[in-house]
Every structure is written in structure tokens, then in C-alpha cells.
Predict the structure.
Amino acid sequence: MKMKMRLAVMVALLVSTVAWLGCAAALPQGFVYVTDVIPTAILDIRYFGDNNFLGTRVDGYEAPTAILTEEAAAALKTAADLLEEQGYYIKVFDAYRPQRAVAHFVRWSKDPADAKMKEQFYPDLDKSVLFELGYIAERSGHSRGSTVDLTIVYMDTLEEVDMGSGFDFLGEISHHDTDLITEEQAANRSILREAMVRAGFLVYPKEWWHYTLADEPYPDTYFDFVVK
């Protein structure tokens, strides 16, 4: 009887160990889940759902989670700490993006009949010019694992701070140097920008939400593992 109990315990321990190893190996070496590093981060992973400029879940997103390189996540933690001191949490819309997702964007851009999200995300542009204007590319910095799309929310209400335009709105109003927003909205963008720059991120002039780690660890590597 004791032998059977010992055997059962050993089997249970083995199963637990294998399960733990499976979880630990879920990400490639050098990558982490954002919420493991920043527990206060709020996730709204738009490409896992249909609230995005395609209007559908994007290839490669199998879970509403955010992944970054270890270096980018550590830098983002620095920015998040700076923002929490001012009364804000970070809200992440996208982080690492598989190359297959970028390919999905490219296919979408070549289908002129699919314009169901035009009014919400690119009302003043024809989708045929999104490549030319730099909103879509055949390779994205996100696929290198050190780029993040985010905003900030008030800690007490969790409401998004007014940035003058929404995430992934493709147009001049989303540019950092736009004159189409109020002074308050510009100041709100500056709060996010200053924290991110202090933490070591670079600004993307056309998208107030888009930041890339200046000293990214994989500057020439585009990954394609799924987000799960």
C-alpha cells in the first residue's frame, strides 16, 4: 500500500514538473510576459479581437496577452513606475507581433473591397496609401519584440487619459506634432512620452502610442512565434 502511495506521489510530482517545464518553455529564450514584469499593466490586446482597423482577429494572436523581450519589459517597468508616481497605470494594446500578423495586414491592404473599418480608423485615407504613408510595412518593429503600443489610464478610475485620438487611428491627428488636438490632450501625450523616453524608448512620430526600445536586443531578427 505504501509503495503504491509513493508511486502515486512520484507520478504526481513528475506530471507537475512536466507541466511547469511546458509553461516555462512557452516563450522563446529572452522573451517574457509583460504582466509577469508589470503586474499593474492593463491589457487590451486589440488584434486578438475585432476592435481594430481590420475588423477581425489577426493571424498569430491566440490569446489576449502581451509579450516583450526581457530588456524591453524591464525598460517598460521603469516607465510604468514613473507613471504610477504620477497617478497612472499603463494600458497595453500590442507588444510583440508575429510576422504572420504583419502578413495579414499586407493581405488586407491589397483588398480594396474590405473597408468595413474605414470610418472608425482611417476615414480620411484610402487604404491603398497606408504603405506609402508608413502606417503599414511588410516588416514591423513589433516583430523584433521590443516595440509596444500603449496609453495610460487614471489609477483611481482606470479610464483612459484623453490623447486626442484613439489607438490605431491612422491620420494626422495621431502624429506627435499635430496641431489638431487641444493643449490638454498634447500635455497628456507628453506625460506618456516623457516617461517612455526616460526609460530608454524611441518615439514614432506618426503614432503617439508607439514606442521602440532604443537599445533593442534583436534589431535584425523578425520573429513569428504565436502570441499565446
